[in-house]
Structures are given as structure tokens and as C-alpha cells.
Design goal:
The complex is a heterodimer. Chain A is an all-alpha fold. Chain A is about 70% helix and about 0% strand. The relative contact order of chain A is 0.11. Chain B is built from four helices and six strands, in the order ααααββββββ. Chain B is an alpha+beta fold. In chain B, strands 1, 2, 3, 4, 5 and 6 form a six-stranded antiparallel beta sheet that branches. In chain B, β3 and β4 form a beta hairpin. The longest helix of chain B is centred in the middle third of the chain and has 56 residues. Classes of the chains: A mainly alpha, B alpha+beta. At the A-B interface, α2, α3, α5 and α8 of A face α1 and α2 of B.
């Protein structure tokens, strides 16, 4: 996720305010600008395109309903949007856990957008990230993949900056150890090894 | 380079590569679906909010609420007033009944304390042979009859024997008798003492009555 300029941020905030006032054009503009960010965030957390697509729709529907609650003094518009996305993802993950653990989709060579991910190493890395406990996973995705500053990530997660730092550190440690273990395991057992690592750590 | 550092650097490099790869990931263009969904939700919300448009304005609702509250308070006050009146009335009736009962009891006590003519008459001997003159009250002619509910006083008097039916014992001889005097102050019955047992006075002066 590319970092944004102050002008972009002020525009996002203005679009949110206008969307809250019921202007559909502002809402559409905000959606066009930020849908990829939300989608990537959801995809990074879950490694499921269908999940990320549904979550993105739901996030923007919630944005339309709750745009009036946005407070620029509490954080940026992007942080507010990702905070909404985080809530949606967590709710959906919980709902899916209630139904039974579903195996996340595997990236296939047929996916045009994911061709670059076909490199086995990156696939393993993403699988290991998706298998991390949620609190470490979201810190890693926000800070490492979405490149949010710590303060902004703390606003998204709604916790102190120090907590974000410690979670990120812990997430990197878990990730590193699980990847090393996966390298030692035969091909195809990486998922199982990552799960073992998370079980030990959680 | 030590292993941990190498692993950290490797991880950072991998994360950078994943980050770059994810930048290529684009959200599918669901704009049309999203807009139709938002419009459907807006329509549903408008339908839900529609009844509120029919409602009276806020100020009117406040007035209605005030009026309803005032009516409720008035009704409560009326109920409370009626309850107090009923309680007062019940207390008054209770007191009146108590007073009446006390009065009745007092009257009964008074009657019980005074000798009753009926008792006295009932106590009189029935047969002439067993007549005890000390206890036999006889009704005085032309006087009002004795009543069981009336109280009487017994007054002892001395009568000249000349005027007594018991006969003369001397020119100035007298005999004692009990008069049953009613509440009206009139004598209703008389009882003569026996000549054998009662002392006979020779009254020096005129006959005088002495209340006992």
C-alpha cells in the first residue's frame, strides 16, 4: 500500500464527510480510490480472494452508513477505513470459525493478479502470515505489507503504539521460526508446520 | 553473518517481495454491485423511516407527552382523594359505632347498678302464706306501671299508723315503709315492714320522709 500525501488524506477526509451527507458521487470516488487498499488488507489477512471481495463490499457499505462517525482528530481517513475493514474481517473470520475451519484458498497459476505470487517462497510466506494468530497477523500486515506508520496502525487496531511494536516484533519472530521449520519439512507440509508453530505460541 | 541476522534480513527481503507482489493485486470492479446494494439499503432505510415522517413534529410530541402526564397526574390525585375520603368516612363510622357501644355499655352498667322494679317485684313472695312483708312491693294505685328498663330509688319513709291499713297501735304511732321512686320522681310502689319485726315509732311531731 503506497503511502499517501497530506493532500490525498485531506481529500479522503472530505470525501468521507460528503459521503456522510449523502452524496453518492463522493462515495463512489472514495470507493475507487480506496477499494484496492481495503481489498489488499483483507486478502493479506486471509489469503482468500472471495473473502477479500465480500469483505471489501461490506466495508464500503458500512462506510456509507457510518461515515458520520469519522473524526479527523482521532486519525486519518485511511486508518479509519482500515479500522472498519479490520472489524469486518474479524467478524467474518469468527463467523466462519463457528461454521468450521475452512481451508484458505490456494493461489493458482490461473489467477492473473497472483502470477507474481506463484513463486513458492512467497506463497509459503503468505501462508505463514495467514496462519499467525490474528493479533500478530494484523500488526504485521499493517506495518510491513500496508506500510502504515506505527501510530496509524495503532489507530486501526485501537491499541497503544507500544503494543503495535511488541506485536510486530513477536509476529516477525513467529514467522521466521515457522518459515525455518517449513524449509526443513518436506514439500506440502508447510501448512501443518505453521499451524504447529502457532499452536505453540498462542 | 550469524543465522538470526541472516534470517531477519531474509524475512525482510521476503516481506518486501510480498509487499511488491501484493501491490499488483487489484480489487475486482464491483462498483455497480456496490452501488445497487447501497441504493437498496437506502431504499430499505427510507421505508423504515417513512412512518416517522407521519409522526407529529417534535414539539407536538412533547406537548402530547406533557398532556398525557398531566392527565395521569390528575387521575392519580383523584384516586388518592377518593381513597382519603373513604378512609376518613370509615374512621368516622368506626368512632361513632364505638361511642354508641360505650354509651350502651354505660347505660347497661347504670341499670345493672340500680335495683330494678321488676327484680324487686319478681323477688316478692307469690303466696300469701309465705308473704314476707319486707320484700313485697305493691304497686301504688293510679301510678304508672313499672318498667324493666327504668331505674328506681328506694326511699324509706315513716307513716302514721292512723292512716295505715295495718291498724292503730297508738295515737301517734308510725311504721316504716319503702317507696319505689322512679326517674320521674313519683312513687310507683310501696313495701311495708312487718309490724312484728319493725320498730314502731311514736312520732312526736308531724310525719317526715327520710331518703336513704
Amino acid at each position: 500500500m503506497p503511502s499517501q500525501t497530506p493532500a490525498q488524506e485531506s481529500t479522503d477526509a472530505a470525501l468521507l464527510v460528503e459521503a456522510a451527507a449523502g452524496r453518492e458521487a463522493a462515495f463512489v470516488e472514495l470507493y475507487r480510490r480506496r477499494r484496492d487498499d481495503v481489498y489488499r488488507f483483507a486478502y493479506s489477512l486471509t489469503r482468500s480472494r472471495a473473502f477479500a471481495q465480500d469483505a471489501t463490499q461490506e466495508v464500503f457499505l458500512k462506510v456509507l452508513e457510518n461515515a458520520g462517525r469519522f473524526d479527523a482528530a482521532k486519525g486519518t481517513a485511511r486508518a479509519w477505513l482500515l479500522g472498519c475493514a479490520r472489524h469486518v474481517v474479524i467478524d467474518r473470520l469468527r463467523a466462519e470459525n463457528r461454521r468450521g475451519d475452512e481451508v484458505p484458498e490456494q493461489a493458482t497459476a490461473a489467477d492473473h493478479e497472483l502470477r507474481v505470487l506463484n513463486e513458492q517462497r512467497l506463497v509459503r510466506l503468505h501462508a505463514a502470515i495467514a496462519a499467525l494468530p490474528l493479533e500478530y497477523r494484523e500488526a504485521l500486515v499493517l506495518c510491513e505489507l500496508a506500510e502504515l506508520p506505527y501510530a496509524e496502525a495503532a489507530a486501526v487496531i485501537d491499541c497503544p503504539v507500544g503494543t503495535v511494536r511488541s506485536r510486530l516484533h513477536r509476529a516477525r519472530g513467529l514467522l521466521s521460526s515457522s518459515l525455518r521449520a517449513a524449509e526443513r519439512e518436506p514439500e506440502g507440509d508447510s501448512e501443518r508446520v505453521v499451524m504447529k508453530a502457532t499452536e505453540v505460541c498462542s | 553473518m550469524s543465522d538470526p541476522i541472516r534470517h531477519e534480513e531474509s524475512l525482510s527481503a521476503d516481506l518486501g517481495a510480498l509487499r511488491s507482489a501484493l501491490l499488483e493485486v487489484r480489487a475486482p470492479d464491483d462498483e455497480a454491485a456496490l452501488l445497487s446494494a447501497t441504493r437498496a439499503r437506502a431504499a430499505a432505510r427510507a421505508a423504515t423511516d417513512a412512518p416517522s415522517a407521519v409522526r407529529p413534529p417534535t414539539l407536538g410530541r412533547v406537548r402530547i407527552a406533557h398532556r398525557t402526564r398531566a392527565l395521569a397526574l390528575a387521575a392519580a390525585a383523584v384516586v388518592a382523594g377518593v381513597a382519603v375520603l373513604v378512609a376518613v368516612r370509615a374512621e368516622w363510622l368506626l368512632r361513632a359505632e364505638r361511642a354508641e357501644r360505650a354509651q350502651r355499655a354505660e347505660r347497661a352498667e347504670r341499670v345493672a347498678a340500680s335495683p330494678r322494679a321488676s327484680d324487686a317485684v319478681a323477688a316478692a313472695p307469690v303466696t300469701a302464706g309465705a308473704l314476707d312483708a319486707r320484700q313485697a312491693f305493691r304497686p301504688i294505685a293510679f301510678s304508672r306501671g313499672l318498667s324493666a328498663s327504668e331505674s328506681y330509688s328506694v326511699v324509706r319513709v315513716r307513716l302514721e299508723l292512723a292512716s295505715s291499713p295495718l291498724g292503730a297501735r297508738g295515737p301517734n304511732a308510725s311504721i316504716e315503709a319503702d317507696l319505689l321512686v322512679g326517674e320521674d320522681g313519683l312513687a310507683h310502689a310501696i313495701r311495708f315492714d312487718s309490724a312484728d319485726t319493725l320498730p314502731v315509732y311514736a312520732a312526736p311531731g308531724p310525719i317526715s320522709g327520710e331518703r336513704r
